[in-house]
Amino acid sequence: MPVIPYLPADIEEPRELVTAIRARRGGTLLNLDRMLLHSPPFAAAWNAFLGGVRQTLDAPSKLRELAICVVALLNDAEYEFIQHGPEFLKAGGTGEQLEWLKNLPELNAPAGLFNPAEYAIIRLTCEMTRNIHVSPATADAVLAELDSPQHYTEIVGVIATYN
Fold first, then answer.
1. How many CB atoms lie within 10 A of CB 56?
2. Which pTM does this prediction carry?
3. Above 70 in pLDDT, residue 127?
4. Is 159:127 a contact under the CB 8 Å cutoff?
5. CA-based R_g, the chain, Å
6. SS3 category, 147
């Protein structure tokens, strides 16, 4: 149960902010938005920042969504996993991969379930989330699998953001 109540799903004010959030969300407000709108300045900042993280990065969406799902599972953030599991599937992930992720933090996936880039992202996400410190071996593995330092920066930023 939330400590403070969700605002109504049909909230209209502040009009410009609610309209912008609805536009980004395909016309609806998520429960997250209904909570954040208790503070319009915070909701506006959140919408701008997370909108940029979700919609403007160049790193592959499948890897970004994989990292978000791993963060959600490691942090017992069921709501986040429910929101992003379908996004991972839309980005090319499989139901079998999504189901296996529920076994985290075990890192011994069946051979062939994840490609080397995906497995490197899972390791990176686990290390950043659980240990804070990323081992040089993991950083090197991720860098070897991504196309550019920009993609590495973006993936690390996504993990940090969702943590």
1. 8
2. 0.90
3. yes
4. no
5. 17
6. coil
